[in-house]
């Protein structure tokens, strides 16, 4: 597929982004094909054959109205697709299954599961793993302990900045189990490349077992409890 440069999404929010991406891509391809075809046709059809001046046309209300309305309608459709995708990405569940405070710091991540006492903290060369349930909305409260970082999981087609003094909240609903890599994509210092983490999506029963185990683990345990 031409749009293969964008990975398949593993979240409901990413599905909306992927649809908008594909829609824009194929729309652009269609416009390019039509415009290019008309240009080639005009070059061939109206090429110079003699020294006579061709018939001059000084205006056509129908043509001018057509090439004004078509782009206008197209822009309105693209605008609607954008609003639809944005609405799904920014929408928040009334009752998320779990709320995780994600703290970016130089140079790793900390995941605090609100209401449970479970905490996962990354250390150098040992990336942390954020465990979440499949098919349930996960509320993320993203903060930074020092400089600007960026929370990015490529398979979610979603990125959000971690800004000092600001709490960025958003929901992610994973629809596939598995482990997905994440990293900071905002340069934040000499060890920026070490700011990686994993998101492990498990069944709801497995998540509850993990959460109970993590809550009993020593505070600040690194990696995957």
Description of the molecule:
The chain has about 220 residues and is an alpha+beta fold. The chain has two domains: about 90 residues, Helix Hairpins (Orthogonal Bundle); about 120 residues, Cupredoxins -  blue copper proteins (Immunoglobulin-like, Sandwich), CATH 2.60.40.420. It contains three helices and ten strands. The strands form three sheets. Strands 3-2-1-5-8 form a five-stranded mixed sheet. The protein has a three-stranded mixed sheet with strand order 4-10-9, with helices on one face. A two-stranded antiparallel sheet has the order 6-7. The longest helix is centred in the first third of the chain and has 34 residues. The mean pLDDT is about 90.
List the main descriptive attributes of the protein structure presented here.
elongated, alpha+beta, 3 helices, three-stranded mixed β-sheet, Immunoglobulin-like, five-stranded mixed β-sheet, 34% helix, Helix Hairpins
């Amino acid at each position: 597929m031409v749009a293969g440069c964008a990975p398949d999404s593993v979240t409901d929010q990413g599905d909306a982004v992927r649809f908008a991406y594909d829609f824009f891509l194929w729309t652009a391809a269609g416009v390019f094909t039509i415009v290019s075809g008309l240009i080639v046709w005009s070059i061939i059809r109206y090429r110079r054959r003699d020294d006579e001046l061709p018939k001059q046309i000084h205006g056509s209300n129908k043509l001018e109205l057509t090439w004004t309305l078509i782009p206008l309608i197209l822009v309105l459709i693209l605008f609607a697709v954008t609003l639809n995708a944005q609405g799904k990405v920014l929408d928040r569940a009334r009752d998320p299954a779990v709320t995780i405070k994600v703290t970016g710091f130089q140079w790793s991540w900390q995941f605090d599961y609100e209401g449970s006492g479970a905490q996962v903290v990354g250390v150098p060369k040992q990336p942390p793993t954020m465990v979440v349930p499949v098919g349930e909305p996960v509320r993320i409260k993203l903060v930074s302990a020092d400089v600007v970082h960026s929370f990015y999981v490529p398979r979610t087609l979603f990125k959000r900045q971690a800004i000092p003094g600001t709490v960025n909240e958003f929901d992610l609903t994973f629809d596939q189990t598995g482990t997905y890599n994440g990293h900071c994509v905002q340069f934040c210092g000499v060890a920026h490349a070490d700011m990686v983490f994993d998101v492990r999506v498990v069944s709801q029963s497995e998540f509850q077992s993990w959460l109970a185990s993590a809550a009993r683990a020593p505070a600040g345990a690194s990696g995957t409890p």
